[in-house]
Amino acid sequence: MKQNPVIVIGGPTASGKSATALALARYFDGEIVNADSMQIYEDLPVLTARPGPEELATAPHHLYGVLGMQDRCSAGQWRDLVQEAIRDIRGRNRLPIVVGGTGLYLRALMTGLHEMPDVPEDIRARLNLRLDEEGAPALHAELSSVDPDTAAGLNPSDGQRIVRALEIFVHTGRGLRSWQTGRIQDAPPDMRFLAVSILPPREDLYAAANERFDRMLDNGAIEEVAALLARAPAEDFPLLKAVGVPPIRAYIGEQIDRGRMTELGKRDTRRYAKRQLTWFRHQFIPQITIKTKFSECNLDQIFAEIRIFLLTD
Question: What are the residue ranges of helices labelled H in 92-147?
């Protein structure tokens, strides 16, 4: 079976992934595919740093803003979506460029994913209703009684993950941890990957994160969070946990002032970037590592290495 080439670009928030992907798309006639678990939703385009009109005009983009407020996207669901997008792009003889900072998504595509059962929506809906009525600690206590191994690894206040673990147990009678140690779905046999890791110096990354959060506020991040809250999303809606949303939500609710909101938003962004840096340094195995800011990286060298990859079967 012929293996079609796919470029995968991973790295922390504000590292220059999108700019790198655009440069590659222009040079290699590529199309960009989203691998960010927040940018896949249609709400909060500013706060999740979705590509803007200029970027969208530069190259075709896929899987950005395609899910609504009632949707929930797992790594397995994204894996199905991204494989379909990649094969569609290859069918037009263009180069797929997958870019994002959600490590679980990238790992699911490149090395495979543990098989997980499809849970009926009514089970999830009932558990989410209970989450709203009873609170996460009550559901965590219930999970501890039926699946103590999984419960031990979860924060008692993390309602989204607790519901996920409970729904798996209710539907299958097996704990989530046992599923996670079971059979793995293999990586797609018709694809071969070249991984690019963007890991600029931490001080540069933090400065970029701070600057970007200010820019998001200037470009309407507060207003778009207010608009989302006005539509009364369920508390398990993933975007309510997106970086920057909790402090902006507290500011809208007059629990903190704007200065404190900005301070917390920048702090949370830096902390998220630090966690991502750690993951990509230890869990992601790239063929190319870029350790500078995008403005300082040697694109000619990167292009040369990718050309070699594309010429190799």
Answer: 103-111, 121-134, 136-146
Pairing of the two strands 4-10 and 95-100: parallel
CATH number of 4-115+184-311: 3.40.50.300
Range 121-180 has CATH code 1.20.1260.10: no
**pLDDT band, very low/low/confident/very high, at 36 (cuts 50, 70, 90):** very high
By three-state DSSP, how is residue 66 classified?
Answer: coil
Q: How confident is the model at residue 159 (pLDDT cuts 50, 70, 90)?
A: confident
Please, which residues have CB within 8 angstroms of residue 191's CB and are 6 or more apart in sequence?
Answer: 3, 4, 5, 6, 83, 86
Q: Is the dihedral of CA 87, 88, 91, 96 positive or negative?
A: negative
DSSP state of 67: B
Q: What is the pLDDT of residues 264-287, one digit of tens each?
A: 999 999 999 999 999 999 899 999
The DSSP symbol for 240 reads G
Segment (H or E) for 97:
strand 95-100
Domain ranges of the chain: 4-115+184-311, 121-180
Do 48 and 242 form a contact (C-beta atoms < 8 A)?
Answer: yes
**Six token digits for residue 64:** 């950005």
Average of per-residue pLDDT across 123-151 = 90
At 18, which amino acid appears?
S
- Looking at per-residue confidence, does 295 or 261 come out higher? 261
pLDDT tens per residue across span 249-264: 999 999 999 999 999 9
pLDDT of residue 304: 95
Tally DSSP H helices, then E strands, for the chain: 14, 8
Give the model's pLDDT for residue 74. 87
The β-bridge partners of 4 are 191
The answer to whether the Cα torsion of 51, 210, 8, 200 is positive or negative is positive
